[in-house]
Design goal:
Elements: E1 11-13, E2 21-23, E3 36-37, H1 43-49, H2 52-73
Antiparallel strand pairs: 1-2, 1-3
Length: about 80
């Protein structure tokens, strides 16, 4: 499926605050996150993967979850 192409006339929303809607790519007035085109699939995941800090955090969370599951299973 094709995704909408970003343009300056498109409506952009905040990944964290769906009620924030603005035209054009800007920053969210509430949290400062980059707005993403409305209707973009997996917009939050794409935003998280764009930052190395977020990638490290997500990797650490996944490792912690796997370690917790392994500790519960191998008692």
């Amino acid at each position: 499926m094709s995704q909408p192409q970003p343009s300056s006339e498109a409506v952009y929303t905040c990944p964290m605050h769906k009620d924030v809607r603005q035209t054009g790519p800007r920053k969210c007035p509430r949290c400062g996150m980059a707005l993403i085109p409305e209707g973009t699939r997996f917009g939050m995941l794409r935003h998280m993967l764009s930052s190395p800090k977020h990638r490290v955090f997500m990797g650490a969370v996944m490792l912690a979850i796997m370690a917790a599951v392994m500790m519960m299973v191998w008692k």
